[in-house]
Amino acid sequence: METEFTIGDRRLRLLLGDITEVHADAIVNAANAHLAGGGGVDGAIHRAGGPEIMEECRQIGGCPTGSAVATGAGRLPAKAVIHAVAPRWRGGAAGEARLLSDAYRRCLQLADEMKLASIAFPSLGTGAYGYPVAEAAGIAVRTVADHLASGTSLRLAIFVLFSSRDLSVYAEEVGRLGTSAA
Ligand code: AR6
């Protein structure tokens, strides 16, 4: 299932599926600050991409919450994996919203620095880190849409959602932008 919207001459796509199977220049990982691997998206990306991604993560050593770092993509159909660290949900008064939007923004900046044309995001923070999906989706969609509207190398951003419920929550947030469905 797939829905696409246009923002100027850029595209924002919502997709139900497994991010490791998505073809995009950059695939974003929902990592932790130690870049140590784990479950969820992180486990899936390292399993599918092979050990060289973890080797690069070890050399980088870590990444602060609210930021992101790039590595190669191993066997994945991408040029880069961007490892983003979302905040753990602590009730909402611990700066979570800012840290989550910073994590998305850093991914987008890194993609621009690498002059990439497409990027695929999972729903950062809303699995093991417990960020409520309705709130996270609003931040994710607005941050990415703002970036697509502001002079970027990116032509396409994809949100890869892992459940139809998450997909409909993200679709509702995209609907609020007032963009046109393509
Ligand atoms: N493709 C797309 N989305 C997925 C996939 C997949 N293959 N697998 C899970 N999801 P999470 P977080 C969804 O827990 O909350 C790890 O252990 C999932 O259903 O992967 O940022 C790390 O090492 C959920 O909607 O990331 C960290 O320690 C979303 O992806 C910690 O979890 C994010 O869930 C990060 O937690």
Structural features, described:
Strands 4-5-3-6-7-2-1-8 form an eight-stranded mixed β-sheet, sandwiched between helices. 37% of the residues lie in helices and 21% in strands. It has helices at 40-49, 51-60, 96-113, 133-148, 164-176; strands at 2-7, 10-16, 26-30, 68-71, 80-84, 118-121, 156-161, 180-181. By secondary structure, the chain is of the alpha/beta class. The longest helix is centred in the middle third of the chain and has 18 residues, at 96-113. The model has no long low-confidence stretch (mean pLDDT 96). It has five helices and eight strands; from the N terminus they run βββααββαβαβαβ. The chain has one domain (2-177): Leucine Aminopeptidase, subunit E, domain 1 (3-Layer(aba) Sandwich), CATH 3.40.220. The chain binds ligand AR6. Residues 18-20, 30-32, 38-42, 44, 86, 122-129, 160, 162, 166 line the site of ligand AR6.
Strand order of the largest sheet: 4-5-3-6-7-2-1-8
CATH architectural arrangement = 3-Layer(aba) Sandwich
- Proportion of β residues? 15-25%
Using only C-alpha atoms, the radius of gyration works out to 15 Å
Bound molecules: ligand AR6
Q: What's the CATH class, please?
A: Alpha Beta
Measure the end-to-end span: 14 Å
Q: How much helix is in the residues? A: 25-40%
Give me the CATH fold name.
Answer: Leucine Aminopeptidase, subunit E, domain 1
